[in-house]
Q: What sequence folds into this?
């Protein structure tokens, strides 16, 4: 059920019209996907993009979760018989989970505490008397409460119990918690130090052995690094504000004078802060900073993944895929233009001279036999050496030789997906197939691998795994639907990410295709078992049929809009195919003529753009790349060298670049450009070809420092 308050709130937060938010909420409630809403419901949403739609979806979920917690709290307090009208209004007005929990804290069922023990002994009246601070003498007031049977042996015991109760009252005060929460957030500091005796075992955390940094300035990667060091029991970590400022806040709220009863309250304030509030607020601040760090790390990971998934494909070519190795040889496969395995073998070019000669002859023979157009060599162990070997064979110039990032190929080869695809072959064959196919179409192959295994993240194992999976799934779905999927060639894994489908319908589509042959039009999708009207509506526009019955089936024009294109063609006295081929005909179209109650100019403009370039792959064109000749291992590097490389990972502190020596180099953010750079992603993209300068080489620690600055030192 839609909540109007949520709609108003989200619209205000994101500077949107309430009608836009309501439209998105309605569509989501009806089962529409984000890609479908952003692409095919622009009139309804006011042309909101995927990012805006995602923001609305996530915020609706957050507010719904807050409401569920609110209802639970109201029910609990009502069952206690303590729900006043004023308290109910406060709970209903709470806009954040932390404020809500602060209100609930005094009513929350507790385990045994020092205060609860003191209450059991009957000391609450004394505590409240002292807390009033009306000038009474605490020792005199405490005397009647001395009772050996209850374990109160002296006045001091009575006063100590009373202070425990006062400390708990202060701890549960929503004003105190709100003020200290602000103090921790804006004046808190991270402090980390090395645990004694762990200096040698935690060298990668050396930077944090004696580290201090304001909460407001600590970047995501440093927060996650310190937390990991703490988890590995290398570092001791705390987050605290200046203690005197915390006491100033509490004293101003709770101490009303300087008499003896106020002195007792002062002692309770000190105890409360040290024993309760500072720990509670530190835990909250840890959680808040962790959530913020997670969001940033997940954002970086998702953006890196997007760029990797959208890596330009070589396209349908006859490919030889090689998974390099020294002692165990190089596993080799030959694939047809659809990625079908035709042949597999093993060569030993790095074992001996005879082995190299035999390997060379075999490669030449297979290239001729299977009319190979490109060779994909994995960039792992022996990758550069295998590349040099292949180059030395003097194969026909038409055969392209490309080093392929093989991150995750081994994960795929051992997966259930790979076993289903190649049940009769072992891991080595599957891995080589993955490398070859990854060159032809990176997206189609990478969707078979858990995104966390692809190697483009930052602290991906330290962040909230549910939030990470949610974000990465959104990213894969966005990329797959942005590019579109060939209905007659796509794997189950690729179809799974198509809007409105999912794993079961993807399997049903492939099973139907295997049994009945290729789809000749989109309408036949409706014959797939369990693929109903809603799934067809959501998926059809993202599925492509090349050379089918209807030329529009190869485009991103949705079947629900085919009648508009037919009307345009009829008005121009031509057929749809002519309209798609002839720019002169399309120029005669006045889109305003076809506006209706359901179809507006945004959709019509999308249709015309699609007619001009039906089913065009939005990915950039594939560009060949070669590493520097003679630079194959870290020992070949010299400071000052300018060499080509490929960006493999982007982080908040810089980017990693593969320069062909089996160890990526780091371009620190300070070396990204001649001007100040706040975000490395504004300078480069994943898989971008760059020219870097070698700044420093440390072979022992396998560390390479690089620079992208134009003013970086050149070799003499």
A:
């Amino acid at each position: 059920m839609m909540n109007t308050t949520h709609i108003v709130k989200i619209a205000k937060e994101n500077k949107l019209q309430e009608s836009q938010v309501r439209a998105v909420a309605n569509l989501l409630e009806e089962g529409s996907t984000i890609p479908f809403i952003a692409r095919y419901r622009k009139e309804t949403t006011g042309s909101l993009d995927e990012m805006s739609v995602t923001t609305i979806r996530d915020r609706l979920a957050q507010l719904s979760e807050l409401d569920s917690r609110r209802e639970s709290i109201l029910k609990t307090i009502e069952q206690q018989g303590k729900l006043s009208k004023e308290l109910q209004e406060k709970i209903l007005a709470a806009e954040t989970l932390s404020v809500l929990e602060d209100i609930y804290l005094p009513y929350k069922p507790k385990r045994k505490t020092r205060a609860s023990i003191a209450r059991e002994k009957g000391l609450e009246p004394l505590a409240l008397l002292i807390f009033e601070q009306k000038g009474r003498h605490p020792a005199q007031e405490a005397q009647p409460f001395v009772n050996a049977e209850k374990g109160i042996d002296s006045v001091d015991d009575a006063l100590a119990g009373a202070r425990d109760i006062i400390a708990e009252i202060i701890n549960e005060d929503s004003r105190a918690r709100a003020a200290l929460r602000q103090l921790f957030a804006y004046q808190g500091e991270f402090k980390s130090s090395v645990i004694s005796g762990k200096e040698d075992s935690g060298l990668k955390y050396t930077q944090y052995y004696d580290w201090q940094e304001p909460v407001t300035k600590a970047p995501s990667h440093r927060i996650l690094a310190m937390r990991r060091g703490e988890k590995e029991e290398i570092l001791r970590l705390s987050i605290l504000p200046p203690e005197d400022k915390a006491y100033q806040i509490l004293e101003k709220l709770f101490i009303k004078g300087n008499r003896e009863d106020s002195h007792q309250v002062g002692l309770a304030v000190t105890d409360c802060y040290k024993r309760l509030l500072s720990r509670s607020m530190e835990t909250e601040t840890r959680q808040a900073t962790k959530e913020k760090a997670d969001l940033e790390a997940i954002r970086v990971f998702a953006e890196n993944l997007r760029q990797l998934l959208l890596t330009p494909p070589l396209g349908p070519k006859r490919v030889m895929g090689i998974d390099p190795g020294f002692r165990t040889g190089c596993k080799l496969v030959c694939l047809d233009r659809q990625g079908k395995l035709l042949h597999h073998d093993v060569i030993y070019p790095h074992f001996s001279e005879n082995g190299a000669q035999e390997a060379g002859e075999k490669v030449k023979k297979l290239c001729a036999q299977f009319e190979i157009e490109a060779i994909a060599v994995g960039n792992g162990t022996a990758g550069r050496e295998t590349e040099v070997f292949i180059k030395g064979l003097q194969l026909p110039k038409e055969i392209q030789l490309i080093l392929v990032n093989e991150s995750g190929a081994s994960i795929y080869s051992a997966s259930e997906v790979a076993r289903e695809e190649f049940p009769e072959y072992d891991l080595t064959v599957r891995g080589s197939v993955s490398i070859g196919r990854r060159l032809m179409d990176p997206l189609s192959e990478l969707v078979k691998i858990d995104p966390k295994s692809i190697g483009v993240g930052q602290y991906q194992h330290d962040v909230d795994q549910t939030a990470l999976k949610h974000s990465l799934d959104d990213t894969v779905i966005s990329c797959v639907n942005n590019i579109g999927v060939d209905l007659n060639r796509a794997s189950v894994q690729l179809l799974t990410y198509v809007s409105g489908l999912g794993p079961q319908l993807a399997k049903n589509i492939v099973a139907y295709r295997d049994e009945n042959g290729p789809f000749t039009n989109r309408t036949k999708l409706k014959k797939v078992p369990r693929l109903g009207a809603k799934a067809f509506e959501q998926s059809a526009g993202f599925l492509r049929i090349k050379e089918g019955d209807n030329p529009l089936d190869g485009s991103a024009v949705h079947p629900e809009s085919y009648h508009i294109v037919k009307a345009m063609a009829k008005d121009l006295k031509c057929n749809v195919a002519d309209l798609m081929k002839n720019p002169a005909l399309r120029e005669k179209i006045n889109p305003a003529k076809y506006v209706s109650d359901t179809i507006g100019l945004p959709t019509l403009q999308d249709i015309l753009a699609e007619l001009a370039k039906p089913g065009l792959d939005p990915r950039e064109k594939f560009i060949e790349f070669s590493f520097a000749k003679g630079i194959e291992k870290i020992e070949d590097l010299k400071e000052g060298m300018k060499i080509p490389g490929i960006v493999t990972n982007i982080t908040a502190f810089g980017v990693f670049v593969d320069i062909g020596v089996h160890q990526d180099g780091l371009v620190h953010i300070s070396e990204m450009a001649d001007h100040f750079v706040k975000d490395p992603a504004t300078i480069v993209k994943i898989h971008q070809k760059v020219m870097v300068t070698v700044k420093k080489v440390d072979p022992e620690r396998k560390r390479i420092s690089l620079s992208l600055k134009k003013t970086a030192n050149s070799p003499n």
Remarks:
- The chain is about 45% helix and 10% strand.
- Residues 518 and 524 are 10 Å apart (CA to CA).
- The longest strand covers residues 642-651.
- The chain has five domains: 4-107, 114-301, 319-440, 496-612, 634-707.
